Fold this protein.
Amino acid sequence: MKQLCILICLFVTVNTYGQSAAESLQKGIEKHNAKDYEGAIKEYTNAIKADKKLRDGYYNRGVCEQALIDMKAARKDFDKTIEIDPSFVKAYYSRATIAVSEEHYKEALSDLDKTIQLDAKTPNALSLRGQLRAQTGNKKGACEDFNLAKEYGDAKAAKYLAQFCGNEQQAGESLMLDWPESENWKVGDNQENNEQHVLDLIHSNETIEKWTELGNMTAYKGMTAKIPMDKAMELMFDQAKKNAPKAKLTFLEKDEKAEYPWILFTIEAPGFNDDKTPESQLWYIIQGKQALYTNFRAVKKASISAAQKEKWMTFFKTGKIVNK
C-alpha cells in the first residue's frame, strides 16, 4: 500500500510537472506572438525550468533573444536546441543568421549546408546561402542555389538571380547588374518567351501597379548584330513618343569601341496620352554577343535631378556581360 501511494504521488508530480512546462510554453508563445519578447522569455524560462529537455522552449527563447539583439544568449539557446534535437532544421537556420550578422560566413555556410541537407525547402535558406556563396566568390554555386530557390517558390530568388547572376537570359551569357540591397528591391514582374526576357523591379513596400521608382532589365534574345548605339537610343525614343508626344530625349554618354558597346540617355515625359502622371527614365543599353540588353530606372517625375542622374549613371556602369 505504501509503495502504491509513492507511485501515485510520483505520477501526480510528473504529470503536474509536465503540465507546468506546457502551460508556460503556451503562455510564452502567446506573448511571443504579441511581440512581448521580454515577457515571452520569462515564460519560456519557466517552461525550461520545468522541463530541461524542452526543445521548443530553448528554440523559441532564442528567437526572442535574437529579436532583442542578444545574440550571445540566442546562439547558446540554438546550440542547446540542436543538442536536444540534432534534426531540428529551424535551429540551424536561425544560428546561421546570427553568424551572418556577425560576418562569420564560414560558420553560417556550415549551418546553412546542414539546413538544406535536412530540408532544402526551408524558406530563405537557399537564397541566403546563395548570397554568401556569391560574396565569397562561388558564383556558380550561388546561381545554382538561386535557381533552386526559385523552383521552390522563394519570392526573392528572381531578384537575386538578376542581382548576382545577371538575368540568365541566354545560356552562356548574361548581363549582371548589382541592384543595391540597401534600396530594398524586389521582383514586380518576370516574363520570358523565346524572343525576350523582361524583369521589372520595384521597392519592397510597393506594387507593380503603384510604384515610385521602377527598374527594368530586358534581354532581346538573338539580336547579335551590332547596331549603332545612337540607333538603339532613337528606337527607344520613337517608341516612347507614341504614348508621350512631349517626351524629351537627352544623350548622356556612350562607348562604341568597347567590347560590348553601350549608351546612356534619358527620356523625360511630362505626361502620357492616357495618363497625365509624369515619368522620367534613365536608360542603359548594351550590346552582347548573344542578346541586346536594354535597362532603365524610372521615377514618376517630369525630370531627373542632376544628383540622381549621376547616381544612376554610376550604377549602370557597374553592369557587366558575363559568360559561364
In short: The chain has eleven helices and nine strands.
